[in-house]
Amino acid sequence: MNVVVRPALLSEVADVQRIGVEADERFVEVGHPELADGSTMPTEAAEKAIASGRLLVAETVEGRVVGWSYVGRIGGELCLGQISVALAYGRCGVGTALLRAIIEGAKAAGEPSIVLNTQADVPWNLPWYERHGFRVIEREAWTPELERIAVEQSASGLDWANRVHMRLALR
């Protein structure tokens, strides 16, 4: 599918929120209803991410927003926080276009790596990231920041028995 990946606009916050909730519904079918709790990126957080250029959208040639990605930082490292794609556009290359844009932007900015955390037991997560060069970070190699993320996510109800941190080395 042909999409343009570009920075999100403030007028698209509702689209980002709707797509995020919709995309999370897929986790129910693979045994992770805790990831489909109806929560979304808070409006204020989305607005801040847009202002700092950390929220991208994928737009069709017709001008419809069909996916988005968010990046932040964990410690000094670039962190891919989320990629969400509208259900009707899944498995059409939208997520890949978003991921490639993040990777290319990170390379252009001189970032040494990108880190993320994801479900290892979900077919469209870990294997997909591995195909794009991400590798699981073994527990003994976690930075204090990665450890903190795991602790915080566990406290909020995510089971780290099936979650992993992954890293893509860019240099």
From TrEMBL:
Domain of life: Bacteria
InterPro entries: Acyl_CoA_acyltransferase, Bact_Acetyltransf, GNAT_dom
GO molecular function, one term: acyltransferase activity, transferring groups other than amino-acyl groups
UniProt keyword Hydrolase present: no
Domain N-acetyltransferase: 3-152
Coiled-coil region list: none
Keywords: Acyltransferase, Transferase
Protein name: Putative acetyltransferase
Organism for this UniProt entry: Labilithrix luteola
